[in-house]
Amino acid sequence: SSIEKERAFEQDNPAFFTAPEPTSEQTVVFQIRNAGTIKIRLYPDRAPKHVARFLELAEAGYWKDQNVHEIQRATDSNPMGDPPSEMRFGWSSTTDEDRSTWEAGEVAEENQVDWEANHLSHFPGMVAAIPDPTLEGKSQVERIAINAADVASLHDGARVIFGRVVEGLDVVE
Predict the structure, then answer these.
(1) Spatial CA neighbour of 30 closest among 117, 105, 88
(2) What is the separation, in whole angstroms, between the first and last Cα of the chain?
(3) What are 83-95's pLDDT values in tens digits?
(4) How open is the CA angle 44-50-52, to the nearest 5 degrees?
(5) Confidence at residue 35, expressed as pLDDT on a 0 to 100 scale
(6) For residue 81, how many other CB atoms are within 10 A of its CB?
């Protein structure tokens, strides 16, 4: 009876178990050096300001030739557990192959976007703006995190999700 109740709950509440399909057919393509291609679709109905600024930056070629600057993996406290949980990019200094020159960079005022509460969860493949701790109530849209695993317990409510990987999740993983 417990199994049946659980199945019924899952059927009645699909948003707890499956990421919603992006509402835009527009696809943004990232070529990750030495790894492959990631295709992202967006949620303009859930995060219109984030999507608008993200598209402006993409059209301007902001991320062209940038490297991934951080990969979060399973922690020492759980070495047998989760696969790598996310990748991050968006530092303009990462176009240089010499990592010693990479800098987090200044907070670009033109890329600050007001927080948009959208109740999307960090399922695998979700794309979110990384908030800057000095920006209360704002996100930095040029700094992006794409999670490979379900990281809802870590980041739900702390980041604005505005897109989802529709092809290339294996590259993120």
Answers:
(1) 88
(2) 36
(3) 558 888 888 888 8
(4) 65
(5) 87
(6) 10
Q: pLDDT tens-digit profile of 42-76?
A: 999 999 999 999 999 999 999 898 888 888 776 65
Q: Provide Rg for the chain, Cα atoms.
A: 17
Task: Show contacts of 17-26: CB within 8 Å, 24+ apart.
Answer: 18/123, 19/120, 19/121, 19/123, 19/124, 19/125, 19/126, 19/164, 20/120, 21/164, 22/163, 22/164, 22/166, 24/51, 26/55
Both tokens assigned to 39: 């295709």
- Read off the amino acid at residue 126: M
Integer angstrom CA distances of residue 153 from 52, 135, 139, 172: 27, 22, 19, 19
